[in-house]
From TrEMBL:
Name of the protein this chain belongs to: MFS transporter
Chief site of localization: membrane
UniProt keyword Transmembrane present: yes
InterPro entries in the cross-refs: MFS_dom (IPR020846), MFS_sugar_transport-like (IPR005828), MFS_trans_sf (IPR036259), Sugar_transporter_CS (IPR005829)
Membrane topology, record value: Multi-pass membrane protein
Keywords, alphabetical: Membrane, Transmembrane, Transmembrane helix
Transmembrane region(s): 70-92, 99-119, 125-147, 159-181, 201-220, 262-282, 310-331, 343-362, 368-389, 409-430, 436-458
SUPFAM superfamilies linked to this entry: MFS general substrate transporter (SSF103473)
PROSITE patterns reported in the protein's UniProt record: MFS, SUGAR_TRANSPORT_2
UniProt domain Major facilitator superfamily (MFS) profile: residue ranges: 28-462
Keyword Transmembrane helix: yes
Subcellular location: Membrane
């Protein structure tokens, strides 16, 4: 008598799909999260330390307009390095492998973050930030593509949403560190005429990601999809490294439909990146400008005032990233129900309204605790979408290149965002005095309309496997 074979159980859906991950796949998730979280910690260390660092090396108060202008220039330089590194390391991820590329990017951003502490002027500070950006730019695509190709299809959008949400841990670590050092400075732990200041300590701590190098190099293996692709290529004519590098770039831009997707994906991510780095990540400066006169009227001055301002800048970053954590989860949940494109459309509108409202209405300490988190929820949710959506747009041959180009090349355009914010503040709206920065921030919120415009030209990928 024949026995019917057991009927395989259907794959789990929703968040229950995470139960399908093996122990190794969870290990890859943890390592990728650590790499990306420490990368994000580096970004936030820069956001929080840039004004105090430039004020020190320029020997001017942090509220000086010239310091503010150089802060926007330093941010633009950082984003340019980020874009260049993202494009270059994205192609290397497809040629050399996801793991090797991730290792190189971690070492690069850890080294030059630490060297930023040695800055003596605005120009060497910007040079260190340019080189740091090269590593920061490559880390995201290397980690997200490695993870996307390692986990099962049914669990992919949820594990990638969780991966992006974990970035909040790095951001909040930087904020808590800034608050702690601000408290120490307020108590006189850092003499004003001493070399070791809170911002230098923050950059020195940024060296820690280098410890991950050993784990990444010796504990991870390349995804089977990538190895199969490379084995198939090895059967044909083997190009030189330079031919392979540029061949990948030419291929993605000359092959349909990937060429259309990479350009539309660039506009989609560029809108969010400019909104974040050109507007939202200047929220610590918004809080400083809003509260500085209030704190001075309460009798604070000198190191006490600087320490209190540093503490509140940390609070702003902390609550912004707390909101971001829930926003990224919200995107992951909504996109599993209605799809990628409708979810992006919803959050682009929410990001525009919440950011404009925050820059226009934030005035008091209480406002920091509810306006900044709402802005973080709406803006950073988009980045959860990028982690889920970008790997779904490209085949294995171009996945790292396409993901990295979309996520990072937009920073070449986004580099104009901080500079535009500075020009709007100091030139266009200069006649508005103390409110010039607010007018500039609200004006720049129109960038989110670009993301809405490009959505109809991109495919819906909900429920579909990764393209091959």
């Amino acid at each position: 008598m024949s026995v019917d074979p057991p009927v395989p159980s259907p794959p789990r859906t929703g968040w229950a799909s995470l139960k399908d991950l093996t122990r190794y796949q969870w290990f890859v998730f943890v390592v990728c999260c650590l790499a990306w979280d420490l990368d994000c910690m580096d970004q936030q260390l820069f956001v929080l330390a840039r004004d105090p660092a430039l004020a020190t090396v320029m020997q001017k108060p942090a509220s000086d307009p010239q310091v503010g202008s150089y802060a926007t220039y330093a941010t633009s330089v950082f984003l340019i390095g980020w874009a260049i590194g993202g494009i270059g390391f994205g192609v290397l991820g497809d040629r050399l492998g996801r793991v090797k590329t991730l290792t190189m990017t971690i070492g690069l951003y850890a080294l030059f973050t630490g060297l930023s502490a040695l800055s003596t002027g605005p120009w060497d500070f910007m040079a260190y930030r340019l080189l740091t950006g090269l590593g920061v730019g490559g880390a995201f695509a290397s980690a997200v593509v490695l993870l996307a190709e390692t986990v099962p299809n049914n669990a992919r959008p949820y594990i990638l949403g969780l991966f992006q949400a974990s970035s909040v841990l790095g951001n909040c670590s930087a904020a808590l560190l800034n608050m702690y050092l601000g408290s120490l400075q307020k108590g006189g732990a850092f003499p004003a005429d001493g070399w070791l200041l809170p911002w230098r300590v923050m950059f020195l701590i940024g060296i820690l990601p280098g410890i991950l190098l050993v784990v990444v190099q010796f504990s991870l293996r390349e995804p089977e999809k990538w190895k199969a692709m490379r084995e198939a290529e090895a059967l044909g004519t083997r190009p030189s490294p330079w031919q392979a590098f540029f061949g990948t770039l030419v291929g993605i831009f000359s092959t349909s439909p990937w060429n259309k997707r990479v350009l539309c994906g660039l506009l989609l991510t560029g809108a969010g990146v400019i909104g974040l780095w050109g507007i939202a990540f200047f929220s610590p400066r918004l809080v400083q400008l809003a509260l500085e006169s209030t704190l001075a009227s309460e009798g604070l001055s000198g190191d006490q005032l600087k320490g209190e301002i540093g503490w509140w800048r940390g609070v702003a970053s902390l609550v912004q990233n707390g909101g971001a954590f829930f926003g990224i989860f919200a995107f992951s949940w909504v996109t599993g129900i209605v799809g990628r494109r409708p979810t992006f459309a919803l959050f682009f509108v929410l990001a525009m309204l919440s950011t404009a409202g925050t820059f226009w209405f934030l005035k008091t300490r209480d406002d920091v605790f509810w306006m900044i988190p709402i802005m973080g929820f709406c803006q950073l949710a988009l980045f959860g979408g990028y982690a889920i959506y970008l790997p779904e747009l490209f085949p294995t041959k171009y996945r790292s290149t396409g993901t990295s180009f979309c996520y990072n090349a937009g920073r070449l355009v986004a580099a104009l965002g901080p500079a535009a914010l500075g020009q709007l503040t100091t030139v266009v709206f200069a006649s508005h005095g103390a409110d010039a920065f607010r007018y500039a921030g609200v004006t720049m919120c129109s960038i989110f309309l670009v993301g809405l415009f490009v959505l109809p030209f991109l495919p819906e990928t909900k429920g579909k496997p990764l393209p091959e």
